[in-house]
Amino acid sequence: MDLFGPFLVNGRAISTGLQPQAGDKLSVLTTGELTALVPGSPAPDSVTADGLSTAPGAPDPAPAGWLDPGLTKLSLVGHLDGQSVQLGNSLTVLPKPGQALPVGAELKLDVNAPALTDYEGDDGWSVYIVRTGAGEAVPTLRDWVFFEDLTPVTGDVGGIAAAVLGSLIHVFWTTEGTPYGLLNHLTIDSAGVISPTTIVDQYAVGFSAVSATVHKGGVNAFYCANRKA
Hints:
Elements: E1 2-9, E2 14-15, E3 25-37, E4 45-47, E5 53-55, E6 58-59, E7 76-80, E8 83-86, E9 92-94, E10 107-111, E11 118-119, E12 124-132, H1 147-150, E13 160-165, E14 168-175, E15 181-188, E16 198-204, E17 211-215, E18 218-222
Antiparallel strand pairs: 1-12, 2-10, 3-4, 3-9, 3-11, 3-12, 5-6, 7-8, 7-10, 13-14, 14-15, 15-16, 17-18
């Protein structure tokens, strides 16, 4: 099993470097919003990777002249050896029923939009792809959610990082505190059960960056801290 990404899709074709082999399955996870002004539209649209809809749950198909007519307007699409695939904001597993992945062709990601579309700002969709080889079990994955929606968080989140040890995801993040910032920690198990939050260090710099890695059977977090008295 291999992880590719993150890829930022914000208005141009993105080469993933991923070339599926026979029997591969690709799990595509996407989050974020894209702001685009389509030629002839009076105002820009801010959309998730699901694109535009005519009503809740009713995708708005693109007409002729768009990158992929028939697929959803301003949505995330994949291209494999001339084959167009509808992707979106939720978890998508490829190949879809009745389809096959072209072997050896590179997967590219793009926005289904007409030429001369203006992409505003630096926002976009963040895309990860998990490749599962023939004979491997496809991992249990979930749609993206904001960390603040996943667990109660006190204060604004500064840096955040995660590392996997065994079957547990360890999450570290910084917040402001009094008089110093806090380095916080929780775990998420394979069933999605979230542990209570613990304070690892009450002398952290509130909005410092955080990184985490597994080394010699333990999880190590790196962050900025104030000198302890």
